[in-house]
Amino acid sequence: MKKLLINTYVFVSILFIGILIGHFHGDSTDENHMIVPEMAVEVEDLAAFQASGSDARADLESKQEQMSEQESFNVFSSAGRSIADTVTVVTAFFFHE
Predict the structure, then answer these.
(1) DSSP code string of 12-57
(2) Quick check: 43 and 49 in contact, CB under 8 A?
(3) How confident is the model at residue 3 (pLDDT cuts 50, 70, 90)?
């Protein structure tokens, strides 16, 4: 039992040291390793760019309406709802009495 505890302690200590090294390595501000996305976009025709954005918004709204009309069935969503309802009923039973 003592050997198991010592091995577990050594293993957890090595993992913790690895996490610390990774954390400090990730915080380094070395310019060679940083990835900087280009944020500037040159737009020649601002009106056309804005119109394409509104088209995309209208397309998204139409797809959302279509999905709500189809009433698609998601197994994980329904399972989550039933588990949440069960937990709510059980906790209400224990705490109201």
Answers:
(1) HHHHHHHHHHHHHHHT---TTT----------S-HHHHHHHHHHHH
(2) yes
(3) very high
The number of residues making up the chain comes to 97
Nearest residue to 2 via CA among 13, 10, 16, 15:
10
Place of tokens 């209208």: 58
| Closest to 88 in 3D by CA, of 80, 30, 10, 29 | 80
What gap in Å lies between CA 20 and CA 50, rounded to an integer?
Answer: 46
CA distance 83 to 77: 10
- What pLDDT, in 10s, does the model give residues 49-62? 666 666 777 778 88
Cα torsion for 53, 56, 58, 59, to the nearest 10°? 170
Dist. CA 15–CA 8, nearest whole Å: 11
